[in-house]
Amino acid sequence: MNLQTHVRGRTRLLLALILFLGVMTIIDDYRGWRFLLLALGSVWWLSWLWARSLARSLHLRREMRFGWAQVGDQLEERFTLTNQGTFPGPCIEIVDHSNMPGYQNNLVTGIDNHDTTQWRTKGVCSRRDR
């Protein structure tokens, strides 16, 4: 399942729920509907602002120790994740789409605001043309 499709589906559900609460607030003058509408709308808006802020302030740099590798060589990379924003990123998923067999750099990490984190990965080039 594609993550973007999954997120869009949840966003549509939340928007439908907010629309339902808006209609119920107009139809029935119950204070609970107004409270739920205000609470859900505020949470949705704040989470949207947080995600937009992280999208602009997170930067990932990938550096190879050696520029060229042959079969049997050790591949070493250094990753640097920088958050230049105001908000922390408690759960950041980094997915490597490399096609090198046996070498994946997938990572889930968190990062504070105005912080930098680094990590290194190592692998062995086992096949030609990969």
Structure characteristics:
elongated, 130 residues, alpha+beta, disordered N terminus, two-stranded antiparallel sheet, 2 domains
Shape: elongated
In percent terms, what proportion of residues is strand? 25-35%
State the share of residues found in helices, binned by percent. 40-55%
Average pLDDT reading: 83
How far from one another are the termini?
26 Å
Number of domains: 2
* Radius of gyration, whole Å: 22 Å
Spans of 5+ residues with little confidence (pLDDT < 50)? 1-6
**Strand arrangement across the biggest beta sheet:** 1-2-5
- Sketch the major β-sheet: 3 strands, antiparallel
Oligomer: single chain
- Which series of helices and strands comes N to C? HHEEEEE
How many DSSP helices?
2
Strands, total number: 5
Structural class, please?
A: alpha+beta
How would you explain this protein's 3D organization?
This protein is α+β, with helices and mostly antiparallel strands and 130 residues long. It has two domains: 3-56; 58-124. The protein is built from two helices and five strands. The strands form two sheets. It has a three-stranded antiparallel beta sheet. A two-stranded antiparallel ribbon has the order 3-4. 3% of the residues are buried.
